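Why does residue order matter? Because the sequence determines the fold. Keep that principle in mind as you read this record.
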Amino acid sequence: MSTQVDYYELLECERTADAGTIKTSYRKLAMKYHPDKNAGCKDSESKFKAVSEAYDVLKDPQKRAAYDRFGHAAFQNGGGGGGAQDFGGFSDIFESVFGEFMGGGRGGRPQPRRGADLRYDMEVSLEEAFHGKQTEITIDVSAECDTCHGSGAKPGTQASTCRQCNGHGKVRAQQGFFVVERACPVCNGAGQVITDPCLDCRGEGRVEKTRTLSVTVPPGVDEGTRIRLSGEGEAGPRGSPAGDLYIFLHVRRHGLFEREGTTLFARAPISFTTAALGGSLSIPGLDGTTHEVRIPAGIQSGKQLRQRGAGMPVLQGRGQGDLVIQIEVETPTKLSTRQRELLELFRETETGDECPASQGFFAKLKAAVVG
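Structure:
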């Protein structure tokens, strides 16, 4: 097929076609004429090269503009681009589009395989979450081999460049329409081969060890707070960087306080006489001090009293949250004879103004019944 055939005709597209239409048409034709689908057919191979040549020009906005204005003459006599692509050239085009996604260019070296991150779950009390603490943990982890210092090679020897991939760690293979890149099967992507491995780590550069680590729990931590210890995770193979250790904190339930962010909540039952006459309440704080809470006369169940700055400390910040006391008025269930007599006397003197909410409710109820 002559290279002078109009590129738009080759790709079966109108001259006004957008880039997406051109790309779709090219893919369809390339699959149709691909040599793997038409083994031994010279005409199909020629058509495949022609549509690849056309697409190489029309996919580039600058080349397409030049072609629209000057036709094939724009790429003749050193005009640049547009030459017929052979089968290897198509692989280069594919690599230029997908090379970064596939793991880098042909000349790149394999990136060190970083060790895996680890997770450790730690339980703390609410008091420890308030004050913070210094503690130690023991973990089993893959650490750098002391014998070969992480190289994986027997002391006195060293790894050599893999001949299969020339140290790149990756090999490419043509599979039909695509160029597939995968880890080198000889060096497993390392780019190097160890012919005389370390006897202690068997060439891995790491061995299982039990390690004791110091952990600082800062004041103000909450359920799910994560502490990161950089480089304390699994060691990477053959001297590669280690991963990180993430400590997830879990705060135990407290007998008195519930927590919401930096706010502490506590329920305080009081007698109905204290609710009516007023008084005070002593609440022991997590900081070791006792907080005196004033109870106003006539307080109702469900009322919340707030103590500013008596809550949890702000994590990695300044100040503290609040302590919120929710009042629950308790009705007495056991009365002495004298107490009962006094309450009966009190009931005889009631006018209804003492409990306006009750009086209002019964007034509404009576109106509803009459209506």
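The chain has nine helices and 15 strands.
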